[in-house]
Amino acid sequence: MKFLTLLFLLFQSSWLLAQSPPQTSPKPNIILIMTDDQGWGQTGYYKHPVLKTPNLDAMAANGLRFDRFYAGAPVCSPTRASVLTGRANNRTGVPSHGHALRLQEKTIAHALKKAGYATGHFGKWHLNGLRGPGAPILDEDPYGPKGFGFETWMTVTNFFDLDPLMGSAQGVHQFKGDSSEIIVNQALSFIKKQKDAEKPFLAVIWDGSPHSPFEASEEDIAPFKDLDKNSQKHYAELVAFDRSIGVLRKTLRDLDIADNTMVWFCSDNGGLPKIKPTTVGNLRGNKGTVYEGGLRVPAILEWPAGIKPRITKYPSSTMDIFPTIADLLGLPQDNFLKPVDGESLKALFTKDLKRRENAIPFRYQTKGALVDNNYKLVASNVQKNAFALYDLATDPGETKDISKESTEQFQKMTAHYLKWYQSVEDSIAGKDYPGDFDPDSVPQPKFWTSDKRYQKRFEEWKKYPGFQKIYKETKRRDR
Ligand SMILES: [Ca+2]
Questions:
Q1: 452 Cα: distance to centroid of ligand 1 (angstroms)
Q2: Would you state the pLDDT for residue 20?
Q3: Radius of gyration over alpha carbons of the chain, in Å?
């Protein structure tokens, strides 16, 4: 009798378990990876003529490959600001490289920290107003990662190469070896800690490769001996970066967390003009322009638990990253400072979408662009009203201005763009922030060699071999 009762209870409890609603799946871990100056054409999966990227190729084959993904701007810091805020760069106080992100901005790290995530930043920052080759970020810097929601960081002000000198809350660290491998290993030790603590995490890994100065190991340079010196090393940096992606993906699998970890990869702007062979495929323009070659970048989102491998041509941008993650996690809207320029891509995870309702706007220096599905409005100078219209479906190289033929589309998009431009002007004036905004409170870009907080440390930092190199080069630029 006792045995039968036990059997009945066992049966009943397993039946109850089967009937109970499915447990909400644990929050996905999030890793945001960004290269520095990798052009749209520079991957193996786009069949680059000399570069092989077996690890990015494997990631693309196992995730959502975005074939029309745009950096928020055609240069560095502005795109970084757009990733963190979901907003166009100019709204956030970052019109060009080396500008500081305003402290009033709300970031993805703030939001995820509130949602119970551990938050870490590893590598290049370039949002604290300091120019010149990457120096360690100081713990006292209010514009460092700490000021924008990152609890853990091992970060440099700007691009960095072999044997970097990096900064954390604990001080300065001299590393030896390739920068891509170093920051992935730093991120992995943070990730392992969170796994042990059973805490979901946001790890932002912003690589310094393949930005100049081009430095790489002889072994990585070897396959490119036929190229000019700069191109050899530039491509070798991408090889080292790709290898670090392999280490990251393998370790996530070894830790048994790969399935529910979103790994989002993209570059921060289009490819460089002087590197041979081509960095942008057959697109027009390079880094610094608002043509496709300046804005379109390789991008992949790998998340086995939530996305089946697929290629999409849906136009999307770095401004969509934060809105997508907030939507996925059901985070409240007050995590954003409005207006937000990106949109959630969550629906794209399970099915392909035909048309994007919200056009993607860009503004950089005097230039502007607006991507409305296959139509692209390009302004070589917004103030001078110098606009052109291209149909990317029939003319991916942006060779033929159709503004005279497609007048209705042209007028519609120009009006849309100018209205958006005005709202950006309001953001620049600080109208998105509660209370008064003093534009003079934001530090203006300068070289770190002329910053007093840095200068007082130079005597002590001389002991680090990595310091001599960045100091000399920064001084040379800061004349
Ligand atoms: Ca860059």
A1: 27
A2: 44
A3: 23
The domain limits of the chain are 29-349, 366-428
Where the chain has pLDDT below 70, the residues are 1-25
Question: pLDDT value at position 25?
Answer: 66
Burial of 269 (0-12, 13-18, 19+ CB in 10 A): buried
String of DSSP letters for 242-295: HHHHHHHHHHHHHTT-STTEEEEEEESS---SSSSS-SSTT-S--TTSSSHHHH
Q: Yes or no: say if 168 and 186 are a contact pair by the CB < 8 Å rule.
A: no
- Which residues fall within 8 angstroms of residue 336, CB to CB, at 6 or more apart? 85, 86, 106, 111, 322, 323, 326
Taking a C-beta distance cutoff of 8 angstroms, is the pair 371, 358 a contact?
A: no
Answer whether 430's CB lies under 8 Å from 92's CB: no
Question: Tokens 């035909």 label which residue?
Answer: 354
pTM (global) more than 0.70: yes
Q: Which CATH superfamily is domain 29-349 in?
A: Alkaline Phosphatase, subunit A (3.40.720.10)
Q: Which architecture characterizes domain 366-428 according to CATH? A: 2-Layer Sandwich (3.30)
Residue 389 CA, ligand 1 centroid: distance in Å: 26
Partners of residue 387 on adjacent β-strands:
379
What are the residues whose beta carbon lies below 5 Å from ligand 1 (ion)? 36-37, 76, 268-269
Contacts of 446 (CB under 8 A, 6+ apart): 129, 130, 131
How far is the centre of ligand 1, averaged over its atoms, from the C-alpha of 71 (Å)? Answer: 10
Ligand 1: centre distance to CA 211 (Å): 6
Q: For the purposes of burial, counting CB atoms within 10 Å of the CB of 215, is it exposed (0-12), middle (13-18) or buried (19 or more)?
A: buried
What CA dihedral angle connects 330, 334, 335 and 338, to 10 degrees?
120
Q: In terms of DSSP H, where are the helices of 20-66?
A: 54-61
pLDDT of the residue at 16: 45
Ligand 1: distance of its center to the CA of 175 in Å?
A: 22
Picking from 369, 451, 449, the residue whose alpha carbon sits closest to that of residue 72 is 369
Per-residue pLDDT at 278? 94
Centre of ligand 1 to C-alpha 36, Å, is: 4
Ligand 1 mean position, distance from CA 214 (Å): 13
pLDDT tens figures, 394-434: 999 999 999 999 999 999 999 999 999 999 999 999 999 99
Cα of 157 to ligand 1 centre, how many Å? 13
Q: How far is the CA of 187 from the centre of ligand 1 (A)?
A: 21
Nearest Cα residue to 216 out of 162, 266, 265: 162
